[in-house]
């Protein structure tokens, strides 16, 4: 019985080692940086994805679209990926969501130099959104 338990612990440890896609991570956007993204200089590209922990399409979007994009753009120093967690939104979260017209999750917004250059609109989780994000980010390589 103990040997079985030890193997489970060892395998779990191996599975939890960060993969290549997590080398450049997707961080949760700190509230202190909300206005900073609108004051950034041209060439600083922010990819903001609004999600909630209870949202199943958000989890699928993160796994199937967002993490591969993060891996693809890991070498790009001027492209920043952030999640805005709306599970228990505070006043600042609601203001940012309102400012960027976020009405459903997941929703991805791309800003360049503080100006919105892409919005996934009302599409939610959709493979088409992944292609649109790739096309938009290709302009800033």
Characterization of this structure:
With 141 residues, the chain is α/β, with parallel strands linked by helices. It has one domain: Glutaredoxin (3-Layer(aba) Sandwich). It has helices at residues 2-15, 56-72, 91-99, 127-138; strands at 27-28, 45-51, 79-85, 107-112, 115-119. It is globular and about 35 Å long.
List the helices and strands and how they pair.
Elements: H1 2-15, E1 27-28, E2 45-51, H2 56-72, E3 79-85, H3 91-99, E4 107-112, E5 115-119, H4 127-138
Parallel strand pairs: 1-3, 2-3
Antiparallel strand pairs: 2-4, 4-5
What's this model, at a glance?
The chain is of the alpha/beta class and 141 residues long. The chain is 37% helix and 19% strand.
Number of helices: 4
Mean pLDDT: 82
Number of strands: 5
Q: Please state the CA-atom Rg, rounded to the nearest Å.
A: 17 Å
Strand content: 15-25%
Question: What brief labels describe this structure?
Answer:
141 residues, 5-stranded mixed sheet, single chain, Glutaredoxin
